[in-house]
């Protein structure tokens, strides 16, 4: 196991500067996307459930910045961040969230099932741990077909309770598959602190299978990117799977309707993460102190992202629902 | 030249070998599928021809390797996943029901899961309650899955080849007791479409709609009934989904009496569905209520005299048909 922290000198040079600015932009886009989701949900414009990714942006962005467009990801019920970071367009995402035909799944999947072959997104999954097999299978196919693709399996620490995770980690290590299991430890299995559900250590579980494993500060996008780049490279080179524990925090409740949270966590704790550990603020400070950007440039990124999200929401609200005769389409291929 | 005969097991193996030669994307996952060729020896010789990269022995992790099959199918392979005993399907349910069955629909038609799960069904092998069940009704219940129940070596080869070429997840149930059954199987390539029933025997007085293991039972009963002057028609749906309702209803209308036979449990099972199809489609042509015969509502017992009474036999079917025909 290794513990990754970003080095102060990481990211020097013009190309790197663009990369870190891009990472900033991606995190801001995710944050503002989720603000719109919250708004849509609370205004009763969005049906169903909304599980917000706010607070965890550095994990999705740090990892996906290390991937190619053809690489695969599997995602979770808290999947908007992964989806955007892998390259999906917010307009079609919002359309999907509203059940519109223009959505990525023609309205049939919704927030918890966005999938997009064009960006290698095998799909968000509403079964906790439900996609661990799919990601591992994609890695098996990549290896067998020799196409050099890597699969990243995102899951929360709640999925550590699912036995199938350990089955596929065993398979992946036996078969040296190019898959990276990314455990986003946001501390809470829904409404229960992970310490109440998780015996031993998280990385100890990966170590038991001999997986290359690492722990990273999931609020530090450069640290995540650095360790992801290494794990992706070794997977692509045929050196086998890896397990990454990214410690992070979920700003909102389990879902938007989870308002009164004091029975499982304090407001002080939430405030601490938001003020002291925010991935966007931390990265902004780094960009400013390193001289990669000035405040105006960062503000511009925010206003561009806000305009993009507002336009995307408008598009989705105006988009038509699927016609009812589509209900039986695509049950079978 | 006499027709070539193969056992049911040989027919399954030949279908797999032909499809693996034809399409390099086809691969097999499962427990003891390689050198061991499964406990039933159905896959013997495949690893020697196709190598361990395509005939892949897995750990005893049904959920895990089924999930791997789903993901591999979505991303360019055509896996055939081997679940040694149908009873172990319980371990794969999330992968099959929540993942494989729904990936195409939930993604708005973008992802496909062209995968086959081969498994077994059937009691009377003295294997007790956890190695004897026939659980195909569960999968027939779920939109997005197709369910195949071959009853002869000929059907096994033709249906399995079709299943492998299908773009959807298909569960292929093989009756363990039928592996040694011999029958004519053409050496050449042929396929049988899913959703087309086969009238295994023509008759006029009563229809026996039978699936999988129950087809041979129905044919045996039909021979016994013939001696008593009762002409029984045996209709084998061959797939529970898609289901050839038309052939079943036509036969019911023709004979006006129907017994539905299936080795799964009757309660909320395949026989219930088939009986409902017949009631809806042929009600005014029936001279008697549709009779259902399936496994008794008990966990399959080990003790041979107990086990033997849990499933329909030629004798019990003959007796039921005789009563229905008032003879």
Question: How do the helices and strands line up, and which of them pair or pack?
Answer:
The complex is a heterodimer of chains A (333) and B (327).
Chain A: E1 2-4, H1 14-42, H2 57-64, E2 72-74, H3 80-85, H4 90-97, H5 132-145, E3 151-156, H6 163-174, E4 179-185, E5 188-189, E6 192-193, H7 202-208, E7 212-217, H8 221-236, E8 242-247, H9 267-276, H10 279-289, H11 295-318
Parallel strand pairs in A: 1-7, 2-3, 3-4, 4-8, 7-8
Antiparallel strand pairs in A: 5-6
Helix pairs in contact in A: 1-2, 1-10, 1-11, 2-8, 4-11, 5-6
Chain B: E1 5-7, H1 8-22, E2 26-30, H2 46-50, E3 55-57, H3 62-74, E4 78-83, H4 93-100, H5 103-106, E5 116-121, H6 136-140, E6 146-148, H7 153-165, E7 170-175, E8 182-184, E9 198-201, E10 206-210, H8 213-227, E11 232-236, E12 239-241, H9 245-255, E13 258-265, H10 270-282, E14 291-295, H11 304-308, H12 314-324
Parallel strand pairs in B: 2-3, 2-4, 4-5, 5-7, 6-7, 10-11, 10-13, 13-14
Antiparallel strand pairs in B: 1-8, 6-12, 9-11
Outline the structure in words:
The complex is a heterodimer of chains A (333) and B (327). Chain A is an alpha/beta fold and 333 residues long. Chain A has a single domain (2-321), classed as Rossmann fold. Chain A has helices at residues 14-42, 57-64, 80-85, 90-97, 132-145, 163-174, 202-208, 221-236, 267-276, 279-289, 295-318; strands at residues 2-4, 72-74, 151-156, 179-185, 188-189, 192-193, 212-217, 242-247. In chain A, the strands form 2 sheets. A 6-stranded parallel β-sheet of chain A has the order 1-7-8-4-3-2, with helices on both faces. A two-stranded antiparallel ribbon of chain A has the order 5-6. The longest helix of chain A has 29 residues, at 14-42. The N and C termini of chain A lie far apart (43 Å). The model of chain A is unreliable at 7-12 (pLDDT under 50). Chain B is α/β, with parallel strands linked by helices and 327 residues long. Chain B is globular. Chain B has a 7-stranded mixed β-sheet, with helices on both faces. Chain B folds into 2 domains: 5-184, Rossmann fold, CATH 3.40.50.970; 198-324, Rossmann fold, CATH 3.40.50.920. The longest helix of chain B has 15 residues, at 8-22. In chain B, strand 10, helix 8 and strand 11 (232-236) form a beta-alpha-beta unit. In chain B, helix 1 (8-22) packs parallel to helix 7 (153-165), helix 3 packs parallel to helix 4 (93-100) and helix 9 packs across helix 10 (270-282). Helices cover 36% and strands 20% of the residues of chain B.
């Amino acid at each position: 196991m290794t513990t990754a922290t970003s080095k102060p000198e990481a990211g020097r040079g013009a190309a790197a500067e663009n990369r870190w600015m891009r990472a900033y932009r991606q995190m801001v886009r995710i944050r503002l996307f989720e603000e719109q989701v919250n708004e849509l949900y609370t205004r009763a414009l969005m049906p169903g459930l909304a599980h917000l990714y706010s607070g965890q942006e550095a994990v999705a962005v740090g990892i996906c910045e290390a991937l190619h467009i053809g690489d695969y990801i599997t995602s979770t019920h808290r999947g908007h961040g992964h989806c955007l970071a892998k390259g999906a367009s917010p307009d079609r995402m919002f359309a999907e969230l509203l059940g519109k035909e223009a959505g990525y799944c023609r309205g049939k999947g919704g927030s918890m099932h966005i999938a997009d072959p064009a960006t290698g997104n095998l799909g968000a999954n509403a079964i906790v741990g439900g996609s661990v097999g799919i990601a591992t299978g994609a890695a098996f196919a990549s290896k067998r077909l020799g196409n050099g693709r890597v699969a990243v399996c995102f899951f929360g620490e709640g999925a550590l309770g699912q036995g199938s995770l350990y089955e596929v980690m065993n398979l992946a290590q036996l078969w040296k598959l190019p898959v990276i299991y990314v455990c986003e430890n946001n501390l809470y299995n829904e409404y229960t602190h992970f310490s109440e559900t998780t015996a031993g250590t998280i990385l100890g579980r990966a170590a038991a299978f001999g997986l290359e494993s690492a722990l990273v500060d999931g609020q530090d996008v450069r640290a995540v990117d650095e360790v992801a780049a290494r794990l992706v490279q070794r997977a692509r080179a045929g050196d086998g799977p890896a397990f990454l524990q990214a410690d992070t925090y979920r700003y909102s409740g389990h879902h938007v309707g989870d308002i009164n949270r004091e029975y499982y966590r304090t407001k002080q704790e939430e405030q601490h993460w938001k003020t002291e550990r925010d991935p966007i603020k931390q990265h902004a400070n780094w960009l400013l102190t390193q001289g990669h950007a000035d405040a105006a440039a960062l503000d511009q990124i925010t206003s561009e992202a806000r305009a993009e999200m507002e336009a995307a929401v408008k598009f989705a609200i105006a988009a038509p629902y699927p016609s009812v005769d589509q209900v039986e389409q695509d049950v079978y291929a | 030249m006499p027709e070539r005969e193969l056992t049911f097991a040989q027919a399954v193996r030949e279908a797999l070998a032909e499809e693996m030669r034809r399409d390099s994307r086809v691969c097999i996952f499962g427990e003891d599928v390689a050198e061991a060729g499964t406990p039933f020896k159905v896959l013997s010789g495949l690893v020697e021809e196709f190598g361990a990269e395509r005939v892949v022995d897995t750990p005893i992790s049904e959920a895990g390797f089924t999930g791997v099959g789903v993901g591999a199918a979505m991303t360019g392979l055509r896996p055939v996943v081997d679940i040694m005993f149908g009873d172990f399907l319980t371990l794969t349910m999330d992968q099959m029901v929540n993942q494989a069955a729904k990936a195409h629909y939930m993604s708005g038609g973008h992802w496909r899961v062209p995968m086959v799960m081969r498994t077994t069904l059937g009691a009377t092998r003295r294997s007790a309650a956890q190695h004897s069940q026939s659980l195909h009704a569960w999968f027939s219940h779920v939109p997005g899955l197709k369910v195949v129940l071959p009853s002869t070596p000929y059907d096994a080869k033709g249906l399995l080849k079709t299943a492998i070429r299908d773009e959807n997840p298909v569960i292929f149930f093989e009756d363990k007791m039928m592996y040694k059954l011999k029958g004519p199987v053409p050496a050449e390539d042929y396929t049988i479409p899913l959703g087309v029933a086969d009238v295994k025997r023509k008759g006029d007085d009563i229809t026996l709609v039978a699936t999988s293991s129950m087809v041979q039972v129905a044919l045996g009963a039909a021979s016994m009934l013939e001696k008593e002057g009762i002409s029984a028609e045996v209709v084998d749906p061959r797939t529970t989904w898609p289901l050839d309702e038309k052939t079943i209803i036509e036969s019911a209308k023709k004979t006006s009496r129907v017994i539905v036979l299936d080795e799964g449990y009757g309660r909320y099972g395949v026989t219930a569905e088939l009986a409902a199809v017949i009631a809806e489609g042929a009600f005014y042509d029936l001279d008697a209520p549709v009779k259902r015969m399936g496994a008794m509502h008990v966990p399959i017992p080990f003790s041979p005299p107990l086990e033997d009474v849990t499933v329909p036999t030629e004798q019990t079917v003959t007796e039921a048909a005789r009563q229905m025909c008032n003879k």
